[in-house]
Amino acid sequence: MKKKFLAVSMAVVVVLGMALATGCGQSGAPDAAASAAGEAGAAVSAAEEAGAAAEDAAVAEVNGLIEAIQVQEWTETTEADCAAAKAAYDALSDEQKEMLDDPDYFGLDTGDASADDPLNQDEIGEKELLGVSFGTSFNESRATDIGGVEKALAEAYPDWSVRRAFTAQIIINHVLARDGESIDNVDQALQRAIANGVKNLVIQPTHLMHGAEYDELAEAVAAVEDQFESVKIAEPLLGAVGADISEINADKEAAAKAMVAEAAKVAGADSIDALAEDGTAIVFMGHGTSHEASITYDQMSTQMAELGYDNVFVGTVEGNPADTALPEVKKAVEAAGFTKVILRPMMVVAGDHANNDMAADEEGSWYYGFVNGGEFEVEGADEAVDIGAGFGADNVTTQIEGLGRIPAIEEIYVAHTGAVIE
Length: 422
What we know:
The protein is of the alpha/beta class. 50% of the residues lie in helices and 13% in strands. It is built from 16 helices and ten strands.
């Protein structure tokens, strides 16, 4: 911006100087001065256009560099690409940063990254406990939710070295570029274990279910299992999937009780029954999936009903299964007679989906939909759905907290790990 200002100023000074020299003591001075002034204006416009073009080019460059690292594959240039994107971003003015396609990519404050331990150290020893998560770029949630599970595992099994891996390379890249924090992907974590001479490897996924992420993890582990004396993968949070929506298990029951108790506690209520008497429903928003494990969400609804939690509902961002889409969930809440809603994520972390798809006060979020009603676009649907009148801002609240910070949830993971260690 300073260079642009100087260029424009110099152009004005030079051209106006010429105008004064030309017009001084000559009969045609007014015409010459007018002509020179016109030239000065043209010079200013040209300089401004050149400056604007340079600004646009710098913004476009950063957009391109960010796009280049929003990928799911690690390459030999990934670290350099992440560093280049951050350096180019830092060189922008504040005004230019706001012009980016996604100003929040580098600009959003998600908490102190230094509070998180990436657990990527060597000197592992012969016994490793690898916690595998999808991941999140939200620093506070990464440290508190994923870190909460990892710390619980480390405390429960002090003879095992706890390490971390994320399955989402796009998140790994984001954290590396923005915060300089390096997190292993699954392949890197497995190779680190091999290089460190690990003999016994136990993997604890923080995933909710046996979905696509779990399947991909199992496939990656199978490719290197002959490098260890023993390799075991523990159950995800909610255990076995089951054949139909009526098939639930002890893990789902324990998780449901923990989720509901925490939601009531954060809401300042004595119990879930007290919330029901106040006309308040709790809506847990999960991710949703096209994987056959999507039935897990309906099984959790069954579990809530069997526990007598008549004011608890389960939905998903993706609306898969179909009955977990916002229009269907809102309809169920209204049919049950509740007039107030608490929205809370049914996810290990409170990351992008919790902060934006659930809690953002903008069109398209669940909060906005419950507050304002009107038309809502369901992911994958051909057209928007009219979801009726809203509940009003005074009657809809959000709890932006992941499951990983709940001690009773951490205990389920610890138990699953213990089952394969023993």
